[in-house]
Amino acid sequence: MNEGQSFKFELPMEWDDLKHFLAVARAGTLADAARELKTSPETVGRRVAALEARLGARLFDRKQTGYTLTETGVAILSNAEEVEEAILSVEREALGRDLNVSGRVRLATSDELAANVITPHFSEFRRCYPRIVLEVVARHDLANLSRREADIDCGTARPEQGNLLVRRAGWWRCALYAAKSYAAAHDLKPGIRDFSNLDIIAWTEEFAHLRGGPWFAENAPDAIVALQVRHG
Fold first, then answer.
1. Span 111-140, mean pLDDT?
2. What residues have CB less than 8 Å from 105, skipping those under 6 apart?
3. Fewer beta carbons within 10 angstroms: which end of the chain, N or C?
């Protein structure tokens, strides 16, 4: 099979087999895929082997460092992701129309929002929705809602891709702070616009999208970065 060649499923497929295939393709190892799927590496391996037997093709190269997609695996990856999105779309549609509000809802958010926004309002939420079990997952990055990493993501960064419903839930006020001694030494005044000769504390590159990061990138591109901080 040539790279980029379209691959169509013509044999009976089981979604569970495809789900395990996608998990291994994304995680790279049986152990990491099993952790994501909340099962055992042996089960993941059996599912992948079953899919390979059904297709009559090897989908992964097994190496000591992990699993890498073969040419055939790469060819069916996008098809498998389309199947995944279609199934998850059906699930989301059914959940959205269910009038009996109950069950478990996973909310992904940051540590700060969980502590300062979610928790103080939990008792009110509980009174309104007593049959919902709220599961809060603290994380610094955006959860992939299409892959059901969470049902709702409450964060400070707007997602740039995905078929998602996005609503502003509130405002997070940010400000610039400096030690009094530093402000006096540099004659800092309210309304300062020129940051070129000032030392700032910024996020490390992988967290530059977090709050404050985009503002500094736009308004203080020539500032001196004296310290970079990694989130979490």
1. 84
2. 132, 133, 134, 135, 151, 152
3. C
Average pLDDT of 48-65?
Answer: 91
**If you search the block for the tokens 């999208």, which residue do you land on?**
209
Residue reference for tokens 């994380």: 139
Residue with token string 């989301």:
92
Query: Distance (Å, rounded) from C-alpha 20 to C-alpha 48?
Result: 6
The three-class DSSP label of residue 67 is strand
Element housing 137 (H / E): strand 132-138
Looking at domain 100-154, its CATH class is: alpha beta
Alpha-carbon separation of residue 228 from 127, 201, 206 (angstroms): 43, 6, 11
- Whole-model pTM: value is 0.44
| Beta-ladder partners of 124 | none
Task: Quote the mean pLDDT of the chain.
Answer: 81
Most confident of 2-6, 68-72, 119-123: 68-72
Evaluate whether 15-95 and 100-154 have a shared fold.
no
Side-by-side strand order, sheet with 103-109: 132-138, 103-109, 152-154
Q: Which two tokens stand for residue 6?
A: 């379209």
The structure tokens listed for 49 are: 């082997």
Burial-class residue 101 by CB neighbours within 10 Å (0-12, 13-18, 19+). Answer: exposed
Q: Where are the domains of the chain?
A: 15-95, 100-154, 180-229
